[in-house]
Amino acid sequence: MSDWIVIRRPELLNTRFVFATQDHGRKLITALSAETEKYGIRTGTTVADAKAIVADLEVFDDKPERAEKLLKAIGNWCIRFSPIVAVDLPDGLILDVSGCTHLWGDEQDYLREIHTRLRDKGYHIQLAMADTIGTAWALSHFAKHPTVMESGQQLHALLSLPAAALRLEAGTLQRLQKLGLNQISSFINMPRSVLRRRFGEELLLRLSQALGIEEESIIPIQVIPPYQERLPSLEPIRTAKGIEIAIQLLLEQLCKRLKEEGIGLRNARLTSYRIDGRIITTDIGTNRPSHHIHHLFKLFELKIQSIEPALGIDLFVMEATKVEPISPEQEVLWAGDLGLNNQGLTELLDRLTVKLGNDVIHRYLPAEHYWPERSLRIAASIHEKAASGWRSDRPRPTQLLRHPEPVEVTAPIPDYPPMLFRYKGNVHHIKKADGPERIEREWWLEHGEHRDYYQVEDEDGQRYWIFRSGHYQGEKGSRWFIHGYFA
Questions:
Q1: How far apart are CA 218 and CA 232, in angstroms?
Q2: Do 247 and 118 fall within a single domain?
Q3: What's residue 332's pLDDT?
């Protein structure tokens, strides 16, 4: 917390200040600067006592959950070093670094890189690496320097540390201190039955977790998706060519897994982590599941210009956010008209969708409704089957308006076609007409309203689909609408 406010307000560096929160009518210190610690003040001290020691102490109000939000933000940044990062309140993070350290050379180089990067941002940190969470926590809090403990050496690492390194409750620590058991070495070899009787199960559990006898789980900030690949970079990527190479490598790894499992991606996301802390996401989608590397690369290639590397990108993560099974296609002996099953067609549609937007290209299927604007729906995918066929016994306009638009009509009575109509300020004199075709809405929808449709052609040869809503109204006038255009 103190590092966070110094980063935001550099003038507070080397000054005496604390964060405090209200607790039962008194203010308790929750965080403090390094300068304040020199006076023996610790977290949990009352502000009144602290000010009695340091008269010019500056006090900031601590907001609920501020520390957790800050740790989550730092944890999200640390995902570039490990996909599994968990918050360890009140002041720590836990990283599962299995399989990650070799990307930075060795374990010492890995810790050194994390330490340097966070220190350069203004944070004071302690790091340690061990086989178990308990031992790593103990070393990070009570060792003086960043430590990498050799595998299987947890017991040796714990012997010289104080009992507090086991993350014990305050009451348990007090009982240990009263008996003079201040170091782990002073009680670790005692019979378990004695430790259980005097100090309870908590002490045995913490010992077992630190030694690796009991497993300890963590809740990561971000759950790892089942289909995700990561590509860290030792040198920040700043060029479009570098981004292209990263995408190609990630697609090769991801598509290999998808192909082995007989599935393809429908949606994919590339997340680029910049060294300045900004995260850039790039999404693509396909009309049918695909693990075709070349095609998917072409989709991402259309969006590379939108990825701004700035000072550089040091981690790329590619995730298949939606996958579907791929049914193997039977090979044919001769070329034929594959229609919507043509792979080239679907890949062309994918490229157009990525370039122009998701709402530009649609495929429509018939819907079982009489009302024209409700008689079709957008297909969920290019290979979705229609439940019924398109109506072909009556001509329908090439372009159907999303909603009918009102027009002014002059028409004989009662069921003659209109003689002219006015639409958007233009008068259209009708030379030819056919109709009426009565279309009734389902009787259970809004009292079974009906429309009388006419196909009309004006003096310029333009053809329209217009209708009268409901029955002829006589002197009251009828309501007329235009609903579409014929080619």
A1: 23
A2: no
A3: 43
pLDDT for position 87: 94
User: Do 73 and 197 belong together in one domain?
Assistant: yes
* Residue 355 placed within a domain: no
Q: Which two tokens stand for residue 213?
A: 């006898």
Domain count, the chain: 4
Taking the C-alpha atoms of residue 263 and residue 332, their distance in angstroms, rounded to an integer, is 22
48 and 162 fall within a common domain? no
Contacts of residue 16, defined as CB under 8 A and 6 or more positions apart, other chains included, come to 33, 35, 36, 39, 54, 56, 57, 58
pLDDT of residue 474: 62
The C-alpha atoms of residue 78 and residue 72 are separated, in whole angstroms, by 10
Identify the residue whose tokens are 């939000």.
69
Among candidate residues 345, 255, 271, the one with its CA nearest the CA of residue 303: 271
Are the C-beta atoms of 132 and 153 separated by less than 8 Å?
Answer: no
Distance of CA 190 to the CA centre of its chain: 49
Query: What is the C-alpha separation between 87 and 199, in angstroms, rounded?
Result: 28
For strand 17-23 and strand 58-61, is the pairing parallel, antiparallel, or unpaired? parallel
Does residue 169 sit in the same domain as residue 201?
yes
What residues in the chain have per-residue pLDDT under 50? 330-335
Same domain, 163 and 89: yes
Task: Give the pLDDT confidence score for residue 459 in this predicted structure.
Answer: 92
Instruction: Say if 382 falls within a structural domain.
Output: no
Q: Read off the pLDDT of residues 92-118 as tens digits, 9 standing for 90 and up.
A: 999 999 888 888 889 999 999 999 999
Question: Are the C-beta atoms of 296 and 251 separated by less than 8 Å?
Answer: yes
| Residues of the domain holding 15 | 2-64
pTM above 0.85, yes or no: no
Q: What is the pLDDT of residue 165?
A: 94
Looking at residue 330, its pLDDT comes to 43
The answer to the question of residue 341 being in a domain is no
Distance (Å, whole) CA 342 – CA 382: 11
